[in-house]
Prior knowledge:
about 270 residues; alpha/beta; Rossmann fold; five-stranded parallel sheet; globular; binds adenosine monophosphate; binds magnesium ion
Amino acid sequence: MAKYPKWHRVDPDNFDLSSIDTGTKLGADGKKINRNDAEAIYQKNIEAIKTLQFKMWAEKKTSLLVVFQAMDTGGKDGAIRKCFGPLNPQGVETQAFKVPTAEEASHDFLWRVQKHSPAKGMIQIFNRSHYEDVLVVRVHNYKPESVWRKNYTHINNYEELLSDSNTVILKFMLNISLDEQKERLQERLDDATRHWKFSSSDLKERKFWPQYMEAFEEALIQTSKKHAPWYVIPADRKWYRNYAITTIVRETLESIEMEWPKAEEGLADIKIDS
Length: 274
Ligand code: AMP
Ligand code: MG
């Protein structure tokens, strides 16, 4: 249904997360890109995505699910704001997934997620997602391996069902370095207006960086599929992150066959005269 661009896409047969440069400046054509040029392309991408979103929304045949995962301070909130904020809000829904509530925890792990599967014509954004059940749950042994390991299969089956129901799926891992996280955490501490964003649990999680990288690597290998690919976005530079995400969203939407809904006959001949 969608033709997914190759740039930054995870190849499950050949993937090594640690070899990826989180601060790269290499653009879609393989040449270095500077901030000004990247920002100009980002602006054009946004305009193109707006038009494509309008058509998707009018047609009500296809939907788009965009999954964001990252380490703390990885830029999920900023990426969602910058890449989807300018769109028609009637066609976009965003859902964040936090520590499961008692009610959520009393169901299977996909229960809270499936309620937010996108309706036709909509763009649905997940700020964290069902992937937490193979990331934080694995790193902290919240559930035994015999349980979380099966979740790869459950996730793949769920995403295949979505794809068979005309949902195009894009999954973005915003990839920052350990050093970049240190700077961003310090910035949150140094700015009183951003203290609300800081959680002392972020410092605890930071100590588990290698375990998280291992969990991410296996999750991306197990679940990057033709119909639901993962993209690892170098995210130390926010302008590069926004340029890369909007380029991939634009190219994916452009590859979907969309048509304006059939109008009544003879509209062009009608003149409103009073
Ligand atoms: P934040 O995104 O900063 O608001 O933090 C949300 C927190 O919820 C993160 O620490 C996530 O790891 C945690 N979280 C999300 N989903 C789950 C889950 N299924 N099990 C345990 N913790 C989760
Ligand atoms: Mg947080």
